[in-house]
């Protein structure tokens, strides 16, 4: 093999930097006992040499799997982590949970994961760039994504649920209760899971002959605050909805709060459906009707799939979808006989005439 094609070693980098192999190893593992100037030099040489850790040898311990988020953990994240940890315990593999902070430098990020002994990466609701996927490939670090916000053109293994079927079931449930003015509050417009849930909602509305009125579809970030602000905006429309399908449980709880602030009673005046069936759905007041997404199972499947890829095995499919299920609780009811009143808007000049 030509010298230019040979895999760079720690000794190669150490010799170029004029430091010991131990120092290079410390930089790879994120140790703090390295002078800043030395750390910067070693990192630039690792980048230059495109260094990646050697592949795992047969018979060595399985190492660790990293489950990485790009935002703060919430009720959805907790369920994913629980499933991943349980699967890791069964397989005698440690699961490390992190929040991405330095993936802008794709090469250094991937090498850091490999250097820390990670055997695979599971990215949850993250936006993955082509550069990041390529850097992980060079580091021979398998990637599995759960509910990605986007999918690069590269062939990436992913785990999700039947989001379209879930969106369809949620909306059909509301239509069966007599609702025709049904709104949708979702997550990021580009997220594949959000698009599938929205398409399920639209399919149910079209099949029932129920029009999707202007302003009835809103996107956000799958957060509680999006439900509060989105719900408030819906209740200001000329024709207010009698039901709201929220793209996640947190958003649905925000809608409950927006309804409370408006003086609307759930489910007497307004029905609300969520998505996920996290713990907060059961703790809500009233308990939330929602689409159960098997989050723990998704975390477990992702870990097992990642380890199969790390072992060099082929997987049957590059995308796995687990079934969703509608769970009916107390936040939905038949459409009210008298729909909630539309907001009263002052007529310009009226007050002056009456005075």
Automatic annotation (TrEMBL):
GO molecular function, one term: transcription cis-regulatory region binding
Feature: compositional bias, Pro residues: 336-346
Keyword 4Fe-4S applies: no
CDD domains associated with the record: HTH_LacI (cd01392)
Record's signal peptide: none
UniProt keywords, alphabetically: DNA-binding, Transcription, Transcription regulation
InterPro entries assigned: HTH_LacI, LacI/GalR-like_sensor, Lambda_DNA-bd_dom_sf, Peripla_BP_I
Region feature Disordered, mapped onto this chain: 333-355
Coiled coil found in the keyword field: no
Domain HTH lacI-type: 8-62
PANTHER family recorded: LACI-RELATED TRANSCRIPTIONAL REPRESSOR (PTHR30146), LACTOSE OPERON REPRESSOR (PTHR30146:SF153)
Record-given protein name: LacI family DNA-binding transcriptional regulator
Protein's organism: Microbispora oryzae
